[in-house]
Amino acid sequence: MKDVNLGIVGLGNVGSGTLTILAENADEIARKLGFRLNVTAVCSRSVKSKNLPAGLAPKLITTDWREVVSHPDVDIVAELIGGTGTAREVVEGAIAAGKSVVTANKELVALEGVSIWKKAEAQGVTLAMEASVCGGIPIHAVLREGIAGDHIETLFGILNGTSNYILTEIEENGSAFNDVLAEAQRLGYAEADPTADVDGFDARSKLALLASLAFGVQLTPGDIPTEGIRRISPIDFHYAKQLDCTIKLLCSARRVEDGLFVSVRPALLSKKTIMAGVKGAYNAVWSRGKFGADTFYYGRGAGPNPTGVAVVSDLMRVARSLHPEPAHRVPPFAYTDLAAAKPLEIGRQHRHWYLRFRITDQPGIIRDLSSILAEHSISIDAVLQLPDLDKQNLPFVITLENSPESAVRAAVEKMSKLPFMVEPPLALPIERGV
Amino acid sequence: MKDVNLGIVGLGNVGSGTLTILAENADEIARKLGFRLNVTAVCSRSVKSKNLPAGLAPKLITTDWREVVSHPDVDIVAELIGGTGTAREVVEGAIAAGKSVVTANKELVALEGVSIWKKAEAQGVTLAMEASVCGGIPIHAVLREGIAGDHIETLFGILNGTSNYILTEIEENGSAFNDVLAEAQRLGYAEADPTADVDGFDARSKLALLASLAFGVQLTPGDIPTEGIRRISPIDFHYAKQLDCTIKLLCSARRVEDGLFVSVRPALLSKKTIMAGVKGAYNAVWSRGKFGADTFYYGRGAGPNPTGVAVVSDLMRVARSLHPEPAHRVPPFAYTDLAAAKPLEIGRQHRHWYLRFRITDQPGIIRDLSSILAEHSISIDAVLQLPDLDKQNLPFVITLENSPESAVRAAVEKMSKLPFMVEPPLALPIERGV
Fold this sequence. Notes:
Two copies of one chain form a homodimer. By secondary structure, chain A is an alpha/beta fold. Chain A has helices spanning 13-24, 26-33, 65-69, 86-96, 106-123, 139-146, 161-173, 177-187, 195-198, 201-215, 234-242, 304-322, 365-375, 405-415, and strands at residues 4-9, 37-43, 60-62, 76-79, 100-103, 127-128, 152-158, 217-218, 245-256, 259-270, 282-289, 293-300, 339-340, 350-359, 380-384, 394-404, 421-431.
């Protein structure tokens, strides 16, 4: 099968992440597509081949984007420069040259997306822009295809990672806004001029884009009522907690009979909602559909590699559509072939463990249990026992350090034969994250 | 533009939800596609035209699925019968007749998916199956396209709504497993024979399917180590809480150097994770990619309308690919046109409100504030004041009943001129859900 050839314009954060993934994940990508994506041309202001990830061998390395879009071998151009100056020339130049375009450019798409799309449509090429909002969350794919059949009524977003990070710090450490902002600037999480982030302007552009995808409307970001987070203080989190709420910079859009209410502003959000758990520099989108009810999506808002995943996923989708094989044959299982596989023997897996016992209380229990664990080279993390329980049917817990499951199972098997056991121990792994 | 014609086979829960959405959401669907989806043929054991949603006028209503798959006008067949008997005949019959197929059938896809897909490929037609696992979450679209560029390392799932509902009830009400199960059966949330749900077998089939999409492997569900939730008791939630954890029936798959660890079993899950907030009959998937880091997806696991959204979204995707216009022109903004729109005047929106004041303490403050609120026909919900605060800069809070924003803004404007105000009141909406 024919490979598809890429021209990458811009090697900043997102461009570097994209090249890293195209190089390091090339075999996985080929297994999914059934053909390879070649990095045929790259362009940046100061590109040097020695800076490219190992495994890439572009035919063209240049500082002139015109050479990339006009290169006869290039099928798809990725515009990863950002801004609305040269980036717009690159996108429009590529479309005029009959190339499909993938872009990560929020500003350009928010301001000129519709006009660019119409040009692409006239040329019979594709415009793809998953990376333009919520870099690490595939929210375009979700709204455009995954839940396309629904009628979305309400959409909430936490769309600015910097302000969410600042609010989380105020909540968890009780620090004042200005102190947290200064620290975030020192750590590089916030810009020297933080206005776009903390006054809500960045989030408002993203909300306008999401509203296009969710409701089919074209909003002017400046028309969206917008307030930032500068006035939120630790005392507000104290009171919010009394109301079983947290505080988030919430982007919201509600469809009603005669239009759309939209706003970007700090709001109290019930801790009973899944969205209240979004902490630090993460983004999230929560939608309610007339038919599908609530769905919720969460991931990194930005970063070279998360945004690079969005760019590469778009490149794969567009590459499939360009391929001589029928475009609709997107493999239902995501890969072009599935390898028959046996799971690994679970006994080899190391986890932390929770062992819960029901025993008839008597002296020497901890000694007997800890001896068996020691025999199997398993370390105890903690012993937990609630007060005032029935001594004839006493439930207590031992947690274990990271241990191979085979050893834990063997120890539990041996423990279950001890005379004071009311029932075999219950063994559950402890998961702190994926 | 040419419409695309559908044959719907099976009018149980999912079939009814699908028809409801195709009827009630027809205009929205057409705005997204640029053409219409017609329900041309329907088949069920006891179909009557008077039971169809208003607005549908199929040419063929039959009890014989063969008439649907062989109908010359039908472009796509939706198999919504379930099971592996007749359903398989329908799917294979439709493919043999050159029709693309959308299915919601987990059992069939888990057992025969690859063989059916190869038949579809040979015939040049499409097989789509978004509804087959996590009905309300577009996890197929996410894994197949949205984050296709990533290399997934770990995947966690809460894939059985019934067992998650039971665990949530044990945790929140301290009831015993058997009592909660009996109540769930009485309410229709659990089957008379609950084995598939509470012993993990349903979740294990779904995990096998997700592992195909995430890792490109074909697992036999019976090879996956599986434990159910029958032994989880309220005491385990007490101890889990001491460890800052909850307990979930966790489906897990980890890719390591030489293969995949997979399991379905109850596990302690840190309350610091976003997944710990998944309560009741919801499903969720959490993945960690080598490049894109953590992403998380949440929604209804089942139900006629959420699953219907998945079926209709698949029908839309396949219909686009069949359409004479180039298949790759999936509109980047999800709709074929965007309507330029002004947001509604935000003052008309009704919300609950949080007003936080900083005042110099003196008599009559509550009287003055409540008078202004009463003038604007706004009802007070609560007055909150933390003890032991600086009386010269006293922050306290009034929360308001559901009120129009224009009235709240006018009242706040008037309040900000009161002599005891240290700064203008801070007004934040209170959101309990989307």
